[in-house]
Amino acid sequence: MKGIILVGGFGTRLRPLTTNTPKPVIPIVNKPFLVYQIELLKMYGVNEIILATGHLSNTIKKILGTGESFGVKIIYSLENQPLGTGGAVKLASRHLDGQGAFILNGDVLTDINLDKLYNFHKEKKAKVTISLVPVADPTKFGLVETNENNQVRAFVEKPGQNEITTNMINAGAYYFENEIFDMIPPGVNYSLERGLYPMLLEKKIPFYAYNSNDYWLDIGTPKKYLEANKDVLEDKVNIPALLDMKKSGSVFIGDNAQISKKVRMLSMAAIGEKTIVQPGATITDHSVVGNHCIIEEGAQILGSIILDNSFIGKNSKIVNTIIGQNCKVMPYTFIEGGLLKVIGDGAYIPEYSII
Ligand code: GTP
To answer: Which of 89, 240, 244, 329 is most deeply packed, by most CB within 10 A?
Structure first.
């Protein structure tokens, strides 16, 4: 079985974290996000994965390579200019050898049961099946209306308040029969949501919606990104990729991390590979410290994410903040993120700063 993952977007809502690192490989609890999707697909027998790339495609390639280390084959479909979700799928479909495929948006953290989706698709004799999840506020998503037989009736992309008739939204996981790819125009920017789906309805092509109750989160904003890390720490996402992480109590610990015995890790947290945590430091409240970081003595990290290669100086305190890669937070600094603060890659915060 083959799958396509859409990973060519700009990830603008997650800036500045996505300025140098594409959203699909931004780490969630110290694993590139796509690893969660690759493991999900693998779990359901998809072992050939086509990544529809564009923006920062080389960075994705560098991190994931051929896929061999994940036990799958990764094929890169490269767009020279963004083709939109539909155009990207069309280009990637060249690698499907006439087969149907699962398609995933590369920014949803989910443990959706793809067997159930596929069986539903076959039972209904659908040509396209879209998965739906319930959300509290559907205004920021593609809202999908269905009839009593789960056939899609209407597709309203990012609805206004007066257009909300359901709380079921597009979960970004689909199954397409191969003939559907012939309906997408080649080589042009084309949207699945605004182009293909309305056309399926118009032409009365069997288009069904599978209602999922599985874990689902769009990681596209800093707040959701923080939430995704928290949910993984809490074991809410049922994907085996997570099982190989070493755990001590409720703390995930990367290989060769050096953690002083005098470190206080009060509740769920993660420390990345080769990270050094010095005596008297506190890392707690669902904090995640990336790979190759240094957390100096007495530093306190509360409800925060520190990305790879960053340095947190002695007696600094970081609360509700996401600190990008390669940052230097010098000693005695206090960063209080309020609801949430994001500090971009490479920032230098001088000693005694209060932010
Ligand atoms: P924002 O800019 O923050 O909205 O994020 P985004 O760029 O990821 O856009 P959006 O969330 O709408 O995209 C949904 C999924 O489609 C993401 O996984 C994107 O990577 C992907 N995507 C969006 N546009 C393109 C495109 O032109 N080409 C490819 N290959 N993927 C795309």
So the answer is: 329
Testing ligand 1's pocket by substitution, the residue of 15, 85, 109 carrying the most ligand atoms inside 8 A of its CB is 85
Ligand 1 geometric centre to CA of 312 (Å): 33
Range of the domain at 276: 245-349
Judge if 130 and 27 occupy the same domain. Answer: yes
Which tokens in the block code for residue 347? 């920032």
Mean pLDDT along residues 120-124: 97
Average pLDDT over residues 263-268: 77
> Cis before residue 350, ω within 30 degrees of 0?
no
pTM exceeds 0.85 for this model = yes
Q: What is the CATH number of the domain that holds 48?
A: 3.90.550.10
Three-state secondary-structure class, residue 127 = coil
126 CA from centroid of ligand 1 (Å): 25
Question: Taken in order 286, 287, 291, 295, is the CA torsion positive or negative?
Answer: negative
The count of structural domains within the chain is: 2
CA distances 313 to 75, 224, 269, 306, 342, Å, are: 42, 27, 19, 13, 18
